[in-house]
Amino acid sequence: MLRLTIQALALLIAAGTAAAQDRGTVDPKPLPPIEKPDDPNVPAKELFGRKPKPAPLAAQAIGYYTAGCLAGGVALPINGKTWQVMRLSRNRNWGHPNLIQFLERFAEKVPSIGWPGLMVGDLAQPRGGPMLTGHWSHQVGLDADIWFSPMPDRELTRQEREEMSATNIVADNWKDVNPKIWSPAHIALLKTAAQDTEVERVLVNPAIKKALCRDVTGDRSWLHKVRPVYGHNYHFHIRIGCPAGQDGCKKQPETPADEGCGADLEAWFKKVLNPTPGPGRPPLKMSALPAACRQVLLAD
Ligand SMILES: [Zn+2]
User: Fold this and answer.
1) How far is the CA of 14 from the centre of ligand 1 (A)?
2) Looking at the 3D structure of the chain, how many domains does it have?
3) Cα of 2 to ligand 1 centre, how many Å?
């Protein structure tokens, strides 16, 4: 009798856990430990990439977007009314609370502009920091990637979230958007993101910036926040500013006040259409991050 009760209890707990996962958590696969975590030559991505949980400290964005970390990270639930998080196995749906609040606010607005909901790509790791794959930035919990695909009107399975591809909205020659896909809803989506007062930059492929420069009518005051960059043809990247009062968070330079539709855009087209391979960038070590990132890494 007692045994049955325990079994029933275990089942109940298992059911409860499954339900909790469906509401909002990911289930990352643990990586094998590294041999000498204290070796100063170990790339910081090997250390931050092995932390499945946030640092239990007050929320703080520490350092710079491309060299920093995140204390007190908060997870964006994997399902909202108007968003779904993709690629759950990466465990990158973490951010500073300001970023999570922004995303919830943004997602709530999009149905009214003809976009059914957001497909959310990478935010940050639980403790931010450099990542084992992809991204130079996304280190302080203030960056988010949003797919250029509208959210389907059903809840995607975990497998679909791993395997589905995002939509490329740039033409094959990289000189313009794909006219079969580009729509007023894409413009409204980018505009809604850029108009949020917390958002400092929205990064897109130069072909998308060119299309905005040509196609946006009426209020163009938000165009200066949309900046061209390599890639970003399957998703756009939203960067919010440093949280108020967090001196350890290094601000980025302000975007130029003009629309950015002239020489700046031309220069980016040259770079994208005639890429010259750079020297590459060696992986960051802990010494390249603010000292406080060691406490973030070790806190438990
Ligand atoms: Zn990004």
Assistant:
1) 35
2) 1
3) 53
pLDDT at 18: 40
283 in any annotated domain: no
- Mean pLDDT (10-residue bins), the chain, 300 residues: 46 41 65 89 96 97 98 98 96 97 98 97 98 92 98 96 96 96 98 98 98 97 96 97 97 93 93 79 95 97
pLDDT at 37: 87
φ and ψ of 275, to 5 deg: -65, 135
- Cα(11) to ligand 1 centroid in Å equals 40
Is 34 domain-assigned? no
Q: How far, in Å, from the CA of 202 to the mean position of ligand 1?
A: 10
Cα-to-centroid distance, 193 and ligand 1 (Å): 14
- Global pTM reads 0.90
Q: Enter the tokens of residue 11.
A: 């089942």
- Tokens coding 184: 């007023």
On whether residue 276 sits in a domain, the answer given is no
CATH code of residue 249 = 3.30.1380.10
Is there a contact between 259 and 234 (Cβ–Cβ < 8 Å)? no
Domain range enclosing 98: 49-253
CA atoms of 170 and 2, how far apart (whole Å): 63
Q: 60 - beta bridge partners?
A: 71
CA of 138 to the centre of ligand 1 (A): 7
